[in-house]
Structures are given as C-alpha cells and as structure tokens.
Amino acid sequence: MTKIRQHQSCASALHRLETSGALAIAGAILIAAAIGTPAAQAQTPNATRPTCNGYIAPTTPSPGCTPVHFFQGGTDGGDPVGGVTLGTNGALYGTTNGGGTNQGTVYELTPPATSGAPWGYNLLYSFGATAGNDGTNPQGPLVLDKNGVVYGTTPYGGSANCGEVYTLTPPSSGGTWTYNIIYNFLGGSDGCHPWWAGVVLGKNGVLYGTTAYGGSLANAGAGWGTVYQLTPPVSPGVTWTPSVLYSFKGGNDGGLPQANVLFTGGVLYGTAYTGGIAACGSLSTEGCGVVFELTPRAGGKWRESVLYTFAGGGDGGLSSAPLIIKSGVLYGTTSQEDSYYQNGGDCTWGCGTVFELAPPAVSGGVWTETVLYHFEAPYAPPYTTCPAQQCDASDPAGGVVFGPNGVLYGTTVQGGPFSTGTIFGLTPPASPGGAWTEAVLYDASFYAPTGGYTSFPSSPYAGLTAGKGGVFYGTGTGDAGMVFALKL
After folding, report:
1. Strand locations in 281-384, DSSP E?
2. What's the pLDDT at 391?
3. Is the pTM of this model over 0.90?
C-alpha cells in the first residue's frame, strides 16, 4: 500500500518550555493516501515586521526566525516537503511537491549582499514542462557535487511512473540550468518510487539511494524496496550504470525503506519503515521496521545486516527518517510507538522517539539502542495555553541534526496546541547515563486575536539543515509553504 506523509495546513507561535539554548526542525508521519498538492493560498511576509509568523501581524513575534521565502503556490512552487540543501556559495537549494506547471519545482535561493535584504529566488526547473516521461512531485532532499551540479529524485513520473533520478547542471555564466534524466525506474527488480529519499554522493561520483517498492514480486507484486547504486559514465553523454545493492524481502531484513541512506567509511546505513518482527503491537502487521547496514563484499556484492529491530513498544517503530552519525554512534527518530491514536492527537502511550544506536565493543557483537526521548502530544486541540505534557511534540519523522554543545535539534509534524508541529531541542546530560532534556522551542501554530491563523512554518516535514554561525534552515508546508532561517 502506498504510504506518504499526511499534510496539514496551520500556523504558528513561539512557546518555550525550557531555557536551554536549543532550536530545530524535523518531522512527519506516513499514512496511506495519494500525494497531496499544495494549497493555493499565497503568502507574504508581515509588511511591518517580517517574522516567521507570516502575513498576519503576530502579538508574539518569533525571535531568531527569519523568513527566507514565502511560496505563492503558482509558478514559483508550493508545498516544500523536502527541506533545503546548502550550497558552497551560501545559496539554498530545494524542491516543491507542487506548483510550477503543477508537477513541482526545483529552486535556488541566494543570500542577499546586504543583511536584512530579501533573498533572491531562481526557478531552476519546473516538472512537467517538457514533453515525454518527465518526473513529477519531487519530495526528497537534493545533493550537490563539487561542481555545483544538483542531483535529485522524483517518486512519480518516468517511463513506468515509478520515478526517476535527475541532474541539473549550472550554466557556465548566466543562462539556464540544464536538466537531464540519468535514470528511470522501471518498477521491476530495479525498484520503484523513491518516496522521501534523494540520493547521496559516494566516492568517484557514485550515487546511492533507496526505493520504497520494487526489487521483487513479493508484497502482492509491489516488492519491498531496494537500495541502489548509480555509477557515472566514463565519458560525458554516456548512460549511467544502475546496480541494485540489496532487495528487501519484507521479513526480518526489513521492508519499504523511505529515507536517505547514510554513506560513511565505505558503508551504507539506513532505516526500513516495516519488516523486522512479524507484528508490531497495534502499529503494523508488517513489522515495526529495522536499522540496517550494507557493507561491500568481493565481486561487487553487498551484504545486508540488521543492526536493530524495532519492537514498537517503548523503543519506537516505523521510522522514515535518515540517520546521522557521531563518534560511531547512529542517531535517528521513529514516527510512532505502540497505541498511537491519530484522531485528536492522543498520544498517551507515546508519539515517537529520538534514539541512539551504539556499536558493540567487540566486532560481531550486538548494537545497543537507547531512547533519548519519548514524545507526548496534546490530547485534543485547540489549546491556547500549553500545559507541559499537552504541548509536547509527536511524529518526529524528519530526523535530527547536531548543533553547538552536542544538542540535537529536530521538528515534528504533530504536537503543539493545535497539533500542527513543533521545533524542539534535546540537550545531552551533564554526566554519562543521565537523562536528555527536551525543550519545545516553537509551537507551529498561533491563534491570532482576530480569529485568523498566522503562517509560521507549520507541519515541517523535513529536518533542519545546519548553516554557518549557528543558523539552521528549514521548510514549512502551511498554506503554500515557506523557507526559513533560525538563529541559535
């Protein structure tokens, strides 16, 4: 069954539960549905005080949060679910799921020469603008190589409507970026639908990625997904060479991978949304997912090893988030835990986790999972005040990033007084073995005195991107969506 993230349109406000120096972004849950198109409402910054609260003058400003771009939902794009990537020149690159010619866009935002001036917007490509088997509805992150070439994926379109991998090459001086499809997924053993995953760059320009389906005829013919490799041609103009590194079986090995893989030390790490144990409490009959590792073998083969199997209880489950690594320890998020109830936002028994996975002391030993934080969400929105537990977060599906002093930052799609998402920080304990401290820094919803809602980056589906000087960048999908900057 197709699983995608649920879209919610809302607004925002500032709410600090604790005073630790933390901020962030992450977030989203996966449900069965069709990919949504962006809302058509246009947005503009507050004319008198441009803040992340949007086009209605807020009674509570959002210090430290600066709007970079408000999407209008037209030719400039709308619904930026994939987050942003930072270029070497300080520019931001991202995609929108809709807008353009109604099939999504790739855009560039260039920083101003003068502090406080508007960022420049440049439409690099509009999907569906060319005839033939173009991709549609991009929603994964982008990656740039040393030459400024942009690489990305689409979950749909292509010759089999299974998605594609594409490049955008910058012009030598001015002019138009060159769009090129380097691979069309055919929906068979090669895979189908790279949902939330872009591609990552390995050695010698090799690309690695995941597809949520394909790879086999299992799962009623849909397959359980793949990890693939694309090797660049030796000479320009020659086709890229695809290789399937692993086809998931949907059993103990996992299934339906939906996030980017992590490439480090010649090894690939990732999460699979389902698989693992046969049942997953009340969450899924297909398993709660796994954390996996792929290591290269002789003859170009790769070996999959399951590092951890989620049980769906207090350890979490159903992860669609990418992993990060620090000092050999993996960090990630799970969207849910057992007994999560979406309607009303009731997460009495848990609404997701932030976890770490530590390697064994001896080669071949067992990896150790530690839950750093269990999220609790509001029982039933709306709330204009925030009792501590009722304004916590839920569904941190965008992963986490490290900031200063070892603080982890992330976002959630659910939670907060209107169940429209939060920005949180997790501060490490002063001594090993202590508890991490969570701070909800922004509630992604704000009820204006006039009865209207503002447009802070609500429902942020992607994680934060770390910039220079303690600045983080992210996207929100309320109304037509926005790109914003957060200063720690």
Report:
1. 290-296, 302-309, 324-326, 329-334, 353-358, 368-374
2. 58
3. no
